[in-house]
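Changelog-linked ticket: magnesium ion example.
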Amino acid sequence: MGPAELSSLCRAHHDAGVLAERDRIALELHDTFAQGFAGILLLIQAAEVELATDPAACGRRLASAARTARENLRETRTMVATFAAGDPEPETLPATLGTLVRRFGRERGVTATFSASGGTDLPYEQHVTLLRAAQEALANAGRHSGASRVDVRLSRGDTEVTLEISDDGRGFTADDDRGQGFGLAGMWRRVAQAGGELSVQSAPGAGTTVRLRLPIMGRQ
Ligand SMILES: Nc1ncnc2c1ncn2[C@@H]1O[C@H](COP(=O)(O)OP(=O)(O)O)[C@@H](O)[C@H]1O
Ligand SMILES: [Mg+2]
């Protein structure tokens, strides 16, 4: 291979790297900022409706909105620090998921449970993949399902970790769920990159269960 070919190969690799990185950042933006703002907007809209009729409920909504904004700010700062320094996220995944699920229940007014078993340590890549998947599945349950109950389960084994998000909502026909929205498509992509498996079980009227299984490898 001559120098010109080598340099064009290097450039192609570099371009692919930049694109993958942009993709990753676009996904992170969708999963953190967009969803955080959507949650805050939802609470403010509810507060607007209650302002005239139920000032106490309105006050509670605004307090929830402030709490979500503070959590979002903290997450944004963590993300900025992570991008800047490559630091791992300081919290364990069960702790972060617990907060996320509680916040979801509060914002949506539904029963939301979280359970975790096994160890809490996870390589950074798996941590991010699972966290983003949980955020997207919860956002979908909130936006599309009309569920009254959502259960999130995390189970960490020696060689693999599984995460399950199920709702008792209206469900959907899951045969064309891969390409439609940015959300599920992004989840498929992240899970495939991590060498894992994703299944979306859903049927009209029968709720939805999103299940991820990731192999645990790499540095702990
Ligand atoms: N938990 C769920 N309950 C009902 N429908 C869902 C659920 N999750 C996803 N869907 C359906 O699958 C579609 C694709 O989801 P997604 O890829 O996240 O895109 P988006 O949320 O942007 O529409 C949604 O528009 C919705 O019709
Ligand atoms: Mg979505």
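Closing comment: Example verified and attached. Helices lie at 3-53, 55-85, 93-108, 124-145, 182-193. The chain has five helices and five strands.
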